[in-house]
Design a protein that fits this description.
The protein is of the alpha/beta class. The chain has 3 helices and 8 strands, in the order E-H-E-E-E-E-H-E-E-E-H.
Amino acid sequence: MIGRLWRIVLPAKDLERSVKFYGEQLGLSLKYRLAESEAAFDCGGVELVLRKREQTSEATAEIVLELSTRDIFAAWKQLGRRGVSFDEEPTERSGSFCVPFTDPDGHRLLLVEINWSAHLQTISNSTKQPDES
């Protein structure tokens, strides 16, 4: 049986640039580094692995890593000071705040401050069946 998601693997064209981005700019802790082929970070108990690849698949363009924070505006400012580039300010969506950005390989990330009560209400409302009158 499936236990839990423990690892996400992303291709990286320039491993060194990506290691700097995830380690220095996002502040994730480096777990290990395998020479010039792979690096892994701890991302809240899930291992985020970067593997050196000359080409990345278009399928990875559909992947969005959503990173949660308790204070989106403080995190947004801190990441901006570390060199993370954002095209917009955090905005509210369905009761939570979020702001998109990309890593050096173009993988999409979303910084999110989740309002859990609003999120759970949205899920609850979306699973209700319409009345059959």
